[in-house]
Here is the input.
Amino acid sequence: MRRATRGEWPSLQSLPGGAVPPPCRELPMPPAPHHASRRRHRARRPRGPRRGRRPLPAPRDGEVLIEVAYAGVNRPDCLQRAGAYPPPADASPILGLEVAGRVVARGTGVAEPAIGSEVCALVPGGGYAEYCTAPAAWCLPIPGGVSLADAAGLPETHFTVWNNVFDRGRLAAGETLLVHGGTSGIGLTAIQLAKCFGATVIATAGSPAKAAFCRGIGADHAIDYRAQDFVAEVERITGKRGVDVILDMVGGDYIARNLRCLALEGAS
Here is the structure.
């Protein structure tokens, strides 16, 4: 068993800067396979993953083939393992929704990323294998100063936060974001990205220790929702103005309470 290391691959240009998420679990890399097949890991109970072989996937139009160095672990992987989250009909049955590694082949119509580029990518499945296909548009260059291991934890949360908070919510510098579940993977990413772009961040969490952790990674304010009414606290913090954008992973009875937290023209 070995793990692919950055030193084994050519040094390629990467983007400067970028927020670093909490370290992801790293998966060991088996010996390099023959190009006719690839190993994959199948999760089983009670003994966990086991090795197997499947044909090497071929990138389709608009896709790239990635030699996987690391894969992230996400809640949907756990749900899929338990039989509660079936993959899309055209997706790989192998677990794994985000990877970091090296592009080794490209389908038709792909100009970037280049062959040999180190990337991290969001994938519809198949990440817990030595090779995995990904839509080229879902690949990101490895930010400068970020290891391949840490980069494998970027795509799932960063794509989600960027799409919801910035593309849809249009959060801008000087505005205020309310993040529920501040110590979740999505919450941690939202706090850091919002601060990078000049927003004020209010986070909710379920204990004093978690609230302190939110403040420690950049939140301007943190609310222990078990001990405090977050609606009243947001009103107090914002001087009754409300917040501009709310990122909520709870739903249910939070929806009506979120509406009470929004400023005029705010988004949730």
The domain at 158-267 is CATH 3.40.50.720 (Rossmann fold). The chain has two domains: 6-153, 158-267.
